[in-house]
């Protein structure tokens, strides 16, 4: 079997399956949070959040008190993207915003926001454990080869 046939039979289909699963699982974190937070109002509020908003909430808890400029730097995103997501987090009660009319507003997590991040961290620990078990099956050289292959594949498309 030549290399291209091997790729098509043993790698390409697995990558397609992973991409399809990932596309369907964009809601995975929200769904997991909703299952592990019994409050219906909070479940609804979580359903309104994007994955980015959930990541920003984690940053607010980690860096609080924090400004939008600090979040722009920490997340490497534009001010507009951060501002829009932070306004939603504030409106839904996950963070408080001092001086809402000022660009240099300072954000703090609410008790609800902190609770959500605590549950997010439980999921992160679970996923980290699963990923550790996966990568432990490979040597560092094998992992480097896999990473190089995936980067080459990404740049080729």
Describe this structure in words.
- This is MarR family transcriptional regulator.
- The protein is elongated and about 65 Å long.
- The two termini are 24 Å apart.
- The mean pLDDT is 87.
- The protein is built from eight helices and three strands, in the order H-H-H-H-E-H-H-E-E-H-H.
- The chain has one domain (3-156): Arc Repressor Mutant, subunit A.
- The chain has helices at 3-24, 28-36, 40-47, 51-63, 68-75, 79-91, 111-135, 140-156; strands spanning 66-67, 95-97, 106-109.
- A three-stranded antiparallel beta sheet has the order 1-3-2.
- It has 157 residues and is mainly α.
- A hairpin with an 8-residue loop joins strand 2 (95-97) and strand 3.
The largest β sheet comes out as: 3 strands, antiparallel
Q: What would the average pLDDT be, to the nearest integer?
A: 87
Q: What is the fold named in CATH at topology level? A: Arc Repressor Mutant, subunit A
Oligomeric form of this entry? single chain
The helix content, as a percent range, equals over 70%
Task: Map the helices and strands.
Elements: H1 3-24, H2 28-36, H3 40-47, H4 51-63, E1 66-67, H5 68-75, H6 79-91, E2 95-97, E3 106-109, H7 111-135, H8 140-156
Antiparallel strand pairs: 1-3, 2-3
Helix pairs in contact: 2-3, 2-7, 4-6, 4-7, 5-6
Short précis:
The protein is mainly α and 157 residues long. The chain has eight helices and three strands.
Give the tags.
157 residues; mainly alpha; Arc Repressor Mutant, subunit A; 8 helices; 73% helix
């Amino acid at each position: 079997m030549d290399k291209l046939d091997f790729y098509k039979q043993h790698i390409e289909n697995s990558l397609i399956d992973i991409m399809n699963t990932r596309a369907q699982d964009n809601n995975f974190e929200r769904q997991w949070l909703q299952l592990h937070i019994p409050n219906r109002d909070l479940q609804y509020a979580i359903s309104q959040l994007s994955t980015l908003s959930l990541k920003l909430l984690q940053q607010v808890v980690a860096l609080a008190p924090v400004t939008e400029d600090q979040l722009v730097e920490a997340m490497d995103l534009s001010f507009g993207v951060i501002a829009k997501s932070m306004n939603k987090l504030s409106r839904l009660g996950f963070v408080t915003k001092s001086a809402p009319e000022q660009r240099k507003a300072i954000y703090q997590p609410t008790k609800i926001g902190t609770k959500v991040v605590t549950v997010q961290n439980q999921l992160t620990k679970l996923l980290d454990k699963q990923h550790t078990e996966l990568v432990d099956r490979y040597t560092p050289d094998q992992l480097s080869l896999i990473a190089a292959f995936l980067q080459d594949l990404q740049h080729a498309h």
